[in-house]
Amino acid sequence: MAGKTTTRADLADAVHREMGISRNESAGFVERILEEISGALENGETVKISSFGTFSVRDKKLRMGRNPKTGEEVPITPRRVVAFRASHVLKDNINAALVRDSATAAE
Amino acid sequence: MIKSELVQKLADENPNLFHRDIERIVSIVFQEIENALARGERVELRGFGAFSVKRRPARIGRNPRSGEPVHIAEKYAPFFKAGKELRDRLNRRAPAAS
User: What residues contact A106, with CB distance under 8 A and at least 6 apart?
Assistant: First the structure.
């Protein structure tokens, strides 16, 4: 599997290439999109991006954990975590591409 | 919040651009994340989170009703892990007393 990592700069570059707007403005849009999603999640809202997936916030209750090194019991405080559920379209597209790749690699 | 509300918000901030252009910009960003995952790449957006793809190898499953073994093909599952900044933002306010 490719070892490359895609970053904000790559996303901004795609916007710049396809829309013909400046790199700077493109980067601004990427930032605003991520910020809007973060802000909504922070307010406890679910964020649904059709044909991509859904980000939601889950409430975790207080539970007891254990320090694996010392075996000591420590409380894990109640917290909110982000959950992402990929849409079927996203799962199907990823599988179509990667299963095909691994089939050709196996030949 | 749904995608169209996100688009509307950005459109309101950018009266110089057409609504449909904002729509395209938002689509390009998610499409680009999808393209990277479809190449087996990791997408790392500092502060927000990281998308990756996990491989689930082919295995022999069992039809729970008949007990009959069935072949389950290899598959890939997209995965998201929230970044530190986002995790912290969600927990900045004191959680409701439980």
Answer: none
**CB-based contact (8 Å) between A94 and chain B?**
yes
List chain B pLDDT tens, one digit each, 98 residues. 999 999 999 999 999 999 999 999 999 999 999 999 999 999 999 999 999 999 999 999 999 999 899 999 999 999 999 999 999 999 986 555 44
Task: Quickly list DSSP for A47-70.
Answer: EEETTTEEEEEEEE--EEEE-TTT
Per-window interface: B 27-56 vs A, CB < 8 A = 28-34, 36-49, 53, 55
The number of distinct structural domains making up chain A is 2
Total domain count, chain B: 2
Quick check: is A1 in a domain?
no
Residues A36 and A25 in one domain: yes
Question: Among B3, B17, B28, which would you mutate to test the A interface (most chain A Cβ atoms within 10 Å of its Cβ)?
Answer: B28
Structural domain includes residue B97: no
